[in-house]
Amino acid sequence: MSEPIAVAVTTSSRDYEVVVGKDLLGSLGERVKRAVHADTAFVVTDSNVGPLYLDRALASLDTAGLATASITLPAGEQHKTLTSYGAILDAMAHAGLTRDDVVVALGGGVVGDMAGFAAATYMRGIEVVQVPTTLLSMVDSSVGGKTAIDVAAGKNLVGAFLQPSLVVADIACLSTLTPYVFADGMGEVVKHAVLADSQLFGTLSERPLTQDTDSSYLVEVVAANVRIKRDVVATDERERGLRQTLNLGHTIGHAIEAASGYTQGHGHCVAAGLCCVTRATEQLGWSEAGLATRIERCCLAQGLPIDSNIPHEDILHQATFDKKRHGDSVNLVVPTRVGKSEVRRTSLGELSRIVELGCGTGMQESLS
Ligand code: GLY
Fold first, then answer.
1. What atom of ligand 1 comes closest to residue 143's alpha carbon?
2. What pTM was computed for the model?
């Protein structure tokens, strides 16, 4: 097996490494010890991931000389709540955690978001190490410092920016995902390829990436995605400009996800949203001719949906309640060609036209 790849991330608030490789959990403790000056590592995990990987993570942290404590939360987005957040804070206090200690988020995006938010707020902020175990969290949510919980009024409405001190992405963890959860991460991988990597886009259009793909290649693809996100976050940590492009496919994708009652995976909804927006913007002359078909082909090659059967009024209703709305407009990310996109301030009237042109007009593979 080849050496892990370390991607250096530089932001205005913190510099850190994202280490991508296979079978890294055994060296987690040493890596944490090198990255942070902590006495105790407090591991946050969930009921899916804990039984698989918690013991190995704790043993490695212990061997490296760190005291350990942990909490295992019920798995699922429906548990990304104030209640779970409160439970994490109580357990951290109960373990006697201080500002000299570190939180370790072991799990997918939900665990990463909640553990990160707890770390951002406990004693006004302590360090966090992200150990993503899903493809989606490896290529997207563990990098860049967004942390959040959901409240009744909306998903991710309460949060903070806290860059991790280290990210350890062990692709061996991908082997225990269901094919659906693996493919969910591919939605974000295709998005990154459309934004910034025409070569990866070409390869993904030819053949699917799966858990059975050669592990060296998987490591390279995850690292390539981390570099794409790194380059954006290094320029715009707080999403005032360039980082908004990472929302490609998300205006309609989030709306589909919310309208489905969060029964559809985030990455599947992003893929459908990406295809919907591109079908519309191509017809409006904002994207190059043929782009929608190329993106549809790439999504289909990865087993991702290219459309949604959700009624237009439901999509519009959800899209206009998005937290990223600005008054009577939204910042829509338009892919102009593979490797180039732009953020367009779009009125709600134009958005309605975009939904009309792009949603429910693909040929097949719709989310309902
Ligand atoms: N997931 C998009 C971002 O981190 O900005």
1. 4
2. 0.96
Q: Is 279 in the pocket of ligand 1 (CB under 6 A)?
A: no
Name the residue of 18, 136, 146 whose CB sits within 8 Å of the most ligand 1 atoms, as the mutation to test its pocket: 146
The total domain count for the chain is 2
Residue 274: which domain range? Answer: 234-367
**Residue 247 alpha carbon, nearest atom of ligand 1:** 2
Q: Which of 239, 240, 274, 341 to mutate to test the pocket of ligand 1 (most atoms within 8 A of CB)?
A: 239
Q: Are 72 and 150 in the same domain?
A: yes
Closest approach atom of ligand 1 to CA 144:
4
Q: Please write down the HEC assignment for all residues of the chain.
A: CCCCEEEEEECCCCEEEEEEECCCHHHHHHHHHHHCCCCEEEEEEECCCHHHHHHHHHHHHHHCCCEEEEEEECCCHHHCCHHHHHHHHHHHHHCCCCCCCEEEEEECHHHHHHHHHHHHHHHHCCEEEEEECCHHHHHHHCCCCEEEEEECCEEEEEEEECCCCEEEEEHHHHHHCCHHHHHHHHHHHHHHHHHHCHHHHHHHHHCCCCCCCCHHHHHHHHHHHHHHHHHHHHHCCCCCCHHHHHHCCHHHHHHHHHHCCCCCCHHHHHHHHHHHHHHHHHHCCCCCCCHHHHHHHHHHHCCCCCEECCCHHHHHHHHHCCCCEECCEEEEEEEEECCEEEEEEEEHHHHHHHHHHHCCCCCCCEEC
Given 176, 196, 223, which residue is the final one in a domain?
176
Residue 364 pLDDT greater than 60, yes or no? no
- Tens of pLDDT, residue by residue over 15-35, are 999 999 999 999 999 999 999
